Amino acid sequence: MSKTEQPTHGSQVLLRQPEGQPDRVEELRLLKRTFLIMCVAFSLNHATVTTPFVYSSSVLQHSVGYIGNAILNFGTMLCSLFVAPFVNSTIGSKNSMLVGMVLYAVYVICAAIAAATCGDYDEGQGKCEAATAAQWVFFTTGSVVGGLGAGILWLGEGAYFAATAEKVAALEGRPTMDLTKELAAQFAAFYLAFEVIAKLSATALEKVGMSYAAIFFVYAGLAVVAALMFTQASTVESSNAGPPLSLCGKAMTAVALWPDAKIWLLAFTNLTFGFAAAFMNGYVNSNYTTPELGSGYIGTLTAITATVAAVGALAFSRLPSKQVAVFLGSLCFIAIALICLANKAGWVHLSGWNWGLVTLYILQGLGRGVYESTNKGVFADVFPGAASPGAFGNCMMQSTFAFTLCFLFSDFLAPALVWIVLVLGLLTTPGLYLALAVKRREDEAAADKRPAP
């Protein structure tokens, strides 16, 4: 076998290390290719899921959609803490992602069947007025499966991302922090672009007469295609995987980080985004956007938010540091809160803004761009190697905790949401700097304990 020849086993690429230096150029090419495959496959698979999730409360009977979405959010939160870390530690990040993608496909299939089994669909209103037993069974069961899939998929993606950044940085001789910034922006751009395309495509297909049940079946097929696509990616695992864990240790990987102050100091970005998204989707949409522009434009405005987030993620990656990006992202969420508080005080009047309301959605998009990209890089920097899976499990738990809390207690929390967003936004940057300071102190202490060469 020649120096550059590579034996393969299935989709895993095993780079042979003969005498002398390995072929770094070829290894880099394979790593970047496999990361691109991951970005496209993940983004396509996830985009197919967001559509039934968003439309479920209208396409399905309202209570079915509401309860199903609550189950999915709550299931994702629990899975991120206990199930996903165990799965990732047992079968690795790539296989975890494949399991998550398959479970996502099952969720979309169940949503399609549920949409097709409405008892009384009002064509004029475009709503399901009465649910059948089949609709309840398929959507609630699918939501349980979807919650498991989300927790497993997102944690696996975080571990896969961190391992790729670590290996590319080592091969290129660059700081890992530079690679986490670049790769996070690349991932976020694909992820958000596919989300926009999926939402606009669903609207277009519905306009030409396709039922939502048929649309969901098409999306389920695309979810399967995405999973098959990802089988062509290479296996990438961190070289610092840590010691073997017991079954209980694997399940508690995320919870084991709770005594670490850094995991909570970094939580503010996740919590701010979660509460801000709930505030925009609930309070702003119903109190400002619908009276000014009509509910029909909400889809267009949310597509603008995702588009701005995709562009913003790429732009933020060019800033000199992640701290600057996080600061700017937090300012966007703070600005949303301040504008709405100024409206309550009578200093500004959103009731007359009309299309000027797009400003709020642009600010939300810029903040989301930081959440979807820079935030991922920060978690990978602060919790490298064996700590990454547990850290990304906590990252997912924190954001879904905010979503779930707002979802279940929307009426109670609605008056306070704007203040919650403001306070969390103000705490985001100080929390990041404190986490980085703790990380530096830990690294210095570890360096002092290492024996001199």
Automatic annotation (TrEMBL):
Keyword Membrane tagged: yes
Transmembrane stretches, start-end: 34-54, 66-86, 98-116, 136-162, 211-230, 263-284, 296-317, 324-347, 353-371, 391-410, 416-436
Gene3D superfamilies in the cross-refs: MFS general substrate transporter like domains (1.20.1250.20)
Signal sequence residues: none
Domain of life (superkingdom): Eukaryota
Protein keywords: Membrane, Transmembrane, Transmembrane helix
Keyword rRNA processing: no
Family of this protein: Belongs to the unc-93 family.
PANTHER family: PROTEIN UNC-93 HOMOLOG A, UNC-93 RELATED
Protein name: ADP,ATP carrier protein
Organism: Oxyrrhis marina
